[in-house]
Design goal:
- There is one protein chain.
- This protein is of the alpha+beta class and 184 residues long.
- It has seven helices and five strands.
- A three-stranded antiparallel beta sheet has the order 3-5-4.
- The longest helix is centred in the first third of the chain and has 18 residues.
- The chain starts with a strand and ends with a helix.
Length: 184
């Protein structure tokens, strides 16, 4: 998925080496090297972090707090969530997360109950807006102020009697279109 090469590196922290060097500070972890583009490395790193967090809850997220980077370039933002928010934001088979990532151009990954958004400031801002709109939908219809000026929005007038057809049963038609075209 991320176009990277990963392998566990041999380190001087193996038991035999520790004894020979008199080092006893081994923390029980191994070094996983990830090679590739910056975006690819970050995506793969977050996937690995997510897997570790599943096996060892809190390993990466115990001390994590909400953080929004001011950097214009590539950076990461974090937003802790509760269990019900995570379930909704993840979606069936992770489809909502994938749609958020693809439509915003941002890496979106959940590590425990924390969403990590990695990309440029524009990508991170877009991903956060999209996530907020998804949660807003739970409360009722969503209106996007200034949609006419946005370069990431196209509006289509759909006759009232066609809305159900376009939406499909349980949103199936819209979901297929979103998946095919990388939109929300």
């Amino acid at each position: 998925e991320w176009g990277t090469l990963m392998f566990f590196m041999s380190t001087n922290m193996r038991a035999r080496d520790r004894e020979q060097q008199g080092r006893r500070d081994f923390d029980g972890s191994e070094k996983l090297a990830i090679f590739g583009s910056r975006r690819g490395r970050r995506g793969a790193e977050l996937k690995v972090m997510s897997a570790v967090e599943t096996k060892r809850p809190g390993y990466f997220t115990r001390e994590i707090q909400k953080h929004t980077s001011e950097a214009e370039g590539f950076a990461s933002d974090t937003f802790p969530m509760d269990e019900s928010e995570l379930s909704y934001a993840l979606g069936k088979k992770g489809m909502t997360r994938k749609k958020l990532a693809k439509s915003s151009g941002c890496i979106v990954e959940y590590v425990g109950y924390t969403v990590f958004m990695s990309g440029t400031r524009e990508e991170r801002t877009r991903a956060k807006e999209y996530l907020d709109w998804l949660f807003d939908q739970l409360k009722g219809p969503v209106y996007v102020d200034g949609w006419e000026e946005r370069d990431d929005c196209t509006c289509v007038d759909v006759p009232q009697d066609c809305v159900g057809y376009v939406t499909g049963a349980r949103r199936a038609t819209l979901g297929k279109i979103e998946e095919e075209w990388g939109t929300l």
